[in-house]
Amino acid sequence: MKRLLFLFVIATITCSSNAQSVKTRPLKKALTITMPRTIDDEMPGTRGACVAWHPLQKKYYAAMAGNMGYPLGTFDATGKQLSSDDQNCNEDTRGLWYNPVKKTLEGNAYDDVGWFIHKLNAKGTVVETEVLVEGMNQPDGQCVGVFNPLKKEVLFLFNGEVSSYSATDGSPVTTVAIKWGQSKADPELEGAELIGDIETPSDYNYTSLVYTGIKG
Questions:
Q1: Helix (H) or strand (E) holding 195
Q2: Residue 60 near residue 33 (C-beta atoms within 8 A)
Q3: Cα dihedral angle (57, 58, 60, 61), rounded to 10 degrees?
Q4: Which pLDDT tens digit goes with each residue over 139-185?
Q5: 38, 68, 91, 155: which one has the fewest Cβ atoms less than 10 Å from its Cβ?
């Protein structure tokens, strides 16, 4: 029986003497998480949505995208499954994040379902899921949200732009266009050049991003 896996990778980043220059080394797999249920089970899911680390619980939480009945897995720091195989997402999950302000596990769902909070018991098991912010508080229905603790915002990537929303009420804050293949030293683009340049390259994910907290 085949199980679905989440592969964790880490990027070793070294900064040169030039503050504008950041050199990245090849990504290395750090951990493999095996999701609950096999392809022979009902509602196993086929697409991994997201993984969040809860620093107080010392646990990973991972969700499959596409249906509220797809599995939500809880794992210890080594990747060992702690949750039962019948633990469900409870919402049609796209993003998951740990909110250090409220010390809660939160996420965003598909389309206008809204943002939600997973309530945990003392053992870190999800016992209840409640809507946190109602409505379409993201650029697109498929967007995967991540938390920026420095600004207390939730970030989304869509159509070559990173959009931020207030973690308090889900209201939009800012939108920043990505200039693919360009650096700060390159001249500003305008008009048609800019529109063509911010198109997401075909080999890039256009709905998911990762917040590292590392400048650059």
A1: helix 191-197
A2: yes
A3: 0
A4: 999 999 999 999 999 999 998 899 999 999 999 999 998 877 777 77
A5: 38
